[in-house]
Q: What sequence folds into this?
């Protein structure tokens, strides 16, 4: 489909796989601390990201800086490995003043999508308007905004809320009114500026608060759609189907989209870039119903694996040896999905399990190297593409490896991706290239709380750890679980928040990436996870505040709920800016304009790893400046003496974006197509959805 691929799309994710060196420690998400290097005379600084914790590979493609271990695994996505990584790519854009490259690409893609996919446009929910801030008209807020005022609790503070008055902000206020309200209340004397975007911290649900399920509902049939024509593949009904179910297997897509999956076979990959790096997770070869601890004495939830690195060609040799060995050993019993021989040691009575190597988190983000592989995926319907205007992750403006770029998994039978939800609960797309199958397990988002509780019971951390649920425990806890085989050529769409774990039944490669359907559900679920991550000291790989501002610049939202949710995020972000400026002024801390360079990654506090949008603190007298949030700076120096406050955006620009972000008009949805929304592109002749 004629989609422009000038886009540097790339991303990647990491899975939570395992543990290092066979020990039981789990992966930590990579810190994306940002180091700022002070230049001699000015405070113009270069932000660099360094060091990833062992676990999640948070890496950045771009990397202006020292990025330590590019392939560090994480705990995120690959079971084995960790998942993704935040990254800023060199080609990534900057958010504020320009139009980020990805966002621009998304706009171009949108224009093409409109032309090419009449059906699909029905479900678009945005208008792409790529305008420079300066050119954005100052529209008055529309009277149609039936804005429900937010309660005071929106700005509830962690402590001492009663002593300290808090600004009472509402999202129907103009940006000036929000800042005036901050001025009226004055600088927070206690120095506490709540960073929460939600009135209450989201808490995982307990099983008792969820519906009672029958035995059949605990093992539900897996939603599966077989598409036979291009128009079925590109129909809005397919998107609707997938957005209404936790997980779906789509058959027939590559065929009807005329995709060449041979581009992703081991043979092609070796021919293309034999020396390209692959991360390895060494794991026990075991059936998908078991999870032995390393001593093989007991079955546990935590997954053990050790991480190492190799290249595509070396991994290919390993694959070939493993394949030949199985052929010899199994003879006529051989298949590309070979049975596992569950041997027991007659002397000890303990199971005998070999060690296998899973090639994971292989980054296919580089267009120069993997252009054909990247381009081929543009044949998919737009909502499944790595880059598209209707994909929130295309509005991030930089690469998040494994998320808005492609990641490859190279598997021998029994290679295992431990349980996880995607970073910030984004949706995911996974294509099995074959020749073998992958076995999937999926638990609907609603049940992540009970699952998290089970992890706790089994002494493994839900977010930071690597775990493999025991089906029996799920049944006892009445947690429903989908279980199915993904055959070669089948696409699995993992909807928002669906918890999943995957084990290869045979030799196969999989390619995967994330998507962010522009829906209220996806947005709020991502924000809720963003807030929950803060409570768990787990870094949010998707910087939701930064993303929200970019989305507000680039798209016209026609869903009122999504619009409100985004506006509330920006409202809190403006409130924090107002309060932090007041606080800094009150303490006599200099506020310097820092701006954002073209390739600068999103800033995270180096200490707590929370996103710091717009305002952050550095110590004035150190050569290397380390980004701190206000809370961590105050923990280091209570009165902040010697610290400097840096501001990344021009306040007037932010105010303009905020005030210009208005609800778009939308034709009323029809019964047939409840997700129908309009999509109008300012840069193209108007096209309206029928
Ligand atoms: O194929 C795999 O093992 C990775 C599966 C996964 O977690 C994903 O694609 O989101
Ligand atoms: Fe996943
Ligand atoms: Zn911090």
A:
């Amino acid at each position: 489909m004629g989609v422009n691929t000038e886009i540097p799309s790339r991303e990647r994710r990491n899975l939570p796989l395992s543990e290092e060196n066979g020990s039981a420690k789990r992966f930590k998400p990579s810190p994306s601390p940002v180091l700022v290097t002070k230049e001699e005379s000015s405070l113009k600084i270069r932000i660099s990201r360094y060091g990833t914790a062992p676990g999640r590979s948070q890496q950045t493609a771009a990397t202006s800086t020292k990025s330590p271990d590019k392939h560090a695994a994480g705990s995120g996505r690959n079971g084995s490995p960790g998942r993704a990584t935040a990254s800023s790519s060199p080609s990534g854009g900057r958010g504020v003043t320009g139009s980020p490259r990805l966002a621009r690409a998304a706009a171009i893609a949108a224009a093409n999508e409109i032309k090419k996919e009449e059906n699909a446009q029905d479900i678009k929910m945005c208008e792409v308007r790529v305008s420079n801030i300066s050119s954005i008209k100052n529209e008055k807020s529309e009277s149609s905004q039936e804005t429900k005022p937010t309660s005071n609790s929106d700005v509830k503070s962690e402590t001492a809320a009663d002593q300290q008055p808090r600004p009472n902000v509402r999202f129907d206020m103009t940006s000036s009114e929000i800042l005036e309200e901050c001025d009226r209340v004055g600088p927070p004397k206690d120095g506490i500026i709540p960073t929460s975007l939600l009135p209450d911290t989201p808490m995982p649900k307990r099983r008792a608060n969820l519906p009672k399920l029958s035995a059949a509902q605990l093992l539900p049939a897996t939603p599966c759609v077989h598409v036979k024509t291009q128009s079925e593949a590109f129909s809005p009904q397919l998107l609707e189907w997938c957005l209404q179910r936790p997980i779906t297997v789509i058959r027939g897509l590559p065929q009807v989209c005329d995709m060449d999956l041979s581009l992703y076979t081991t043979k092609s990959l070796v021919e293309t870039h034999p020396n390209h790096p692959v991360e390895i997770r060494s794991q026990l070869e075991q059936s998908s119903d078991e999870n032995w601890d390393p001593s093989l004495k007991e079955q546990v939830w935590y997954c053990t694996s050790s991480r190492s690195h190799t290249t595509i060609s070396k991994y290919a040799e390993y694959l070939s040896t493993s394949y030949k060995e199985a052929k010899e050993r199994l003879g006529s019993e051989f298949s590309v999905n070979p049975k596992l021989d569950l041997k027991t040691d007659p002397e000890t009575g303990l199971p005998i399990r070999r060690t296998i190597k899973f090639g994971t988190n292989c980054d296919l983000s580089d267009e120069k190297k993997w252009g054909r592989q990247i381009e081929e995926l543009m044949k998919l319907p737009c909502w499944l593409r790595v880059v598209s205007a209707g994909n929130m992750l295309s509005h991030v403006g930089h690469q998040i490896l494994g998320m808005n770029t492609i990641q490859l998994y190279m598997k021998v039978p029994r290679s295992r991706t431990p349980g996880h939800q995607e970073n910030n609960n984004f949706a995911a797309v996974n294509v099995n290239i074959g020749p073998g199958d992958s076995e999937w397990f999926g638990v609907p988002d609603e049940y992540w709380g009970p699952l998290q509780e089970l992890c706790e019971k089994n002494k493994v951390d839900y977010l930071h750890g690597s775990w493999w649920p025991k089906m029996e425990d799920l049944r006892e806890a009445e947690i429903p679980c989908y279980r199915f085989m993904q055959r070669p050529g089948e696409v699995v769409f993992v909807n928002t928040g669906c918890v999943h774990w995957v084990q290869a039944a045979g030799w196969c490669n999989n390619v995967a990436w994330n998507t962010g359907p522009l829906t209220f559900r996806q947005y709020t679920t991502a924000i809720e996870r963003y807030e929950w991550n803060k409570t768990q000291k787990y870094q949010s790989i998707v910087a939701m505040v930064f993303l929200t501002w970019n989305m507000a610049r680039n798209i016209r939202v026609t869903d009122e709920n999504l619009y409100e949710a985004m506006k509330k995020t920006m409202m809190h972000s403006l409130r924090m800016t107002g309060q932090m400026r007041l606080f800094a002024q009150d303490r006599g801390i200099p506020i310097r304009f820092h701006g954002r360079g073209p390739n600068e990654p999103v800033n995270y506090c180096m200490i707590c790893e929370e996103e710091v949008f717009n305002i952050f603190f550095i110590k004035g007298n150190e050569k290397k400046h380390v980004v701190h949030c206000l809370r961590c700076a105050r923990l280091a120096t209570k009165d902040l003496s010697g610290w400097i406050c840096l501001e990344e955006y021009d306040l007037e620009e932010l105010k303009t974006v905020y005030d210009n972000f208005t609800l778009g008009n939308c034709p009323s949805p029809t019964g047939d197509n409840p997700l129908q929304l309009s999509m109008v592109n300012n840069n193209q002749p108007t096209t309206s959805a029928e």
The CA atoms of residues 455 and 461 lie 6 Å apart. Residues 1-161, 669-690 have pLDDT under 50 and may be disordered.
